[in-house]
Write a structure and sequence with these properties.
The complex is a heterodimer of chains A (about 425) and B (about 220). Chain A has about 425 residues and is of the alpha+beta class. Chain A is built from 8 helices and 11 strands. Chain A has a 5-stranded mixed sheet with strand order 6-8-9-11-10. A 4-stranded antiparallel sheet of chain A has the order 1-4-3-2. A two-stranded antiparallel ribbon of chain A has the order 5-7. In chain A, α4 runs antiparallel to α5. Chain B is built from 8 helices and 14 strands. Chain B is globular, with a radius of gyration of 18 Å. The two termini of chain B are about 20 Å apart. Classes of the chains: A alpha+beta (about 425), B alpha/beta (about 220).
Chain lengths: ~425, ~220
Amino acid sequence: MKLLNKTIRPYMIYSLAILLVTIPIFYFVFRSVLLHSVDRSLRTQLHEIRANLFSIRSESELSAWSKLDKDISLTPATGMENDSIYTVERVFYRHHRPDAEPLREISGIIEVGEKKYKLIISSSLVENEDLLGSILAVLSILVVFLIVGLLWINYKISKTVWKPFYVALNNMQQYELNKNTKLPFKDSNTDEFNELNQSIRHLYDKNYQIYLQQKEFTENASHEMQTPLAIFQSKLELLMQTSPLTELQASLIDSLENANQRLIRLNKSLVLLSKIENSQYTTTDDVNLVTITNKIIEQYSMYADQKSLSIRTEFKESVHIKANQTLIEILISNIISNAIRHNIPQGEVFIEIDNSRLIVQNTGVTNSLSPEKIFERFHKENVTDGTDGIGLGLAIAKKICDMYSFKISYRNIESKHLFEILF
Amino acid sequence: MKILVVEDEKELSESIITYLKAENYLCEVARDYKTALQKIELFDYDCILLDVSLPDGNGLGLLEELKADKKTDGVIIISAKNSIDDRIRGLNTGADDYLVKPFHLSELNARITAVIRRRRFEGNKIIVLHELTIDLAAKTILVNNKIVDLTRKEYDLLLYLAYNKNRVLSKYAIAEHLSGDEEIYNNFDFIYTHMKNLKKKLHQAGCQEYIKSVYGMGYKLEV
């Protein structure tokens, strides 16, 4: 749920509740006030009639008055009765309506001469009810306008008030660690938002500092390691030139160089991997997969010939992708060199490129490899085939694929290893 | 033949000098930018080995100074960084070659020899080892003035051995030299094959067996 909706919802519920509760209350209060005022007017009338009765001298005068004023009715009465006010439903003469309507009446005993009469004064409540209805209608419309207006104002204010927050949010979504972009924040007169912006800026700067340090560390570490490796390498070569050189010494030097070469390769691969992770290959080139693959096959043909491998290719005409040329070369050569290295003598390598797919299929010593673990760092499954790889080639390939959202997968089909890259 | 080694790492520069002295090169060392600048302004060298990262400056700066002075010294950059940008910048500024640390001394020596040969012996592109003659321009081998038909790899192999004659070359150095940048780890079968074929062809042409195997550790061309 959006933040704005979340804040507006309680207001809306509260307003509706108030509206629903107040309208009936208002209705009853107003009605009773109106009724009260009708009653008072009826009592006053009765009181005034009583006060003016002395002016009526004869019975005929009385009946003429009662006939002229249709609001009153006079009937002869015998006993004494208290004044009473009540509501009845009946057809009222004044409105030309056939239906019964609510009337408020007061009845009381008046005395004209010695004779007693029961006097009933009627007043229609229809006007009152109509009035009440109109007032309620106007009120309801007002309330609706009020609520809609309040909601709208609240929405508008929230939008402007929360604006810096949304800018900051958008900013963070676009944030990339390796690019020290100074994305603009919106300054606000709300203290909390200013603090938020400051905190995010601080976080960015700190992250970037750490990133730079990390990058520097990687570069420095590789450099620092390369120097002793180079010294070791050079001393070994000088040792080789000494004479006399016994077979035992030669064999020891050979083992030392083997180990050192492994260290050198390991160092190179780790540097490459961290370079990719640090996104230090940023340039994008128009890469022709077919050209690159042909070049790589040519480079490795020496090794393939050595094992008498038959390399079969099936290329659709020039497939282009947008990526870093160096990385794509590393990616494809890692896959192809694996296919050659872990192959059996007189084995096969089949390389296919169509629109957005590169397939490298090869025969091999081992049966099926684990498709989940094969791309992990330092995962070595087929240590028995005599090729002591360092276990980073496929991890590097995977890293490059991840960087460009390519999909790399491994399958074993008819005891052949198949690597597929979907570009 | 005078060579200047600009390298701040003492042990490494000593190794280089020890290896190169046996080739009768006259070697000098500069451990920092300042010393190197003084030396290249005062003397002419046949080849300068230039480390990119020096304690007081960038080796590429020295290269720029050199080119600004219109000096014709051959320059090989040795760098710990295998960065394409550095490589391109170095070669564009006028370096003759670029070698990434760690490297084999035999590889360095071969490159130095190639650079000096290119610069010094404009007309004389021939290496003669008794009855064996290597024609660098035509990329051919002659034994007793008769052409021996070698493959490209066999020629490269022989040339590498010749540049480092009387030295033991480890099979790792040979593998790296022949395969270039790409690595098929610890597969030396192809070296054995090429070596066997090369020896056979030379022997059939009437060449003495100069190429010796050194206990499975490497090879040596002895003349």
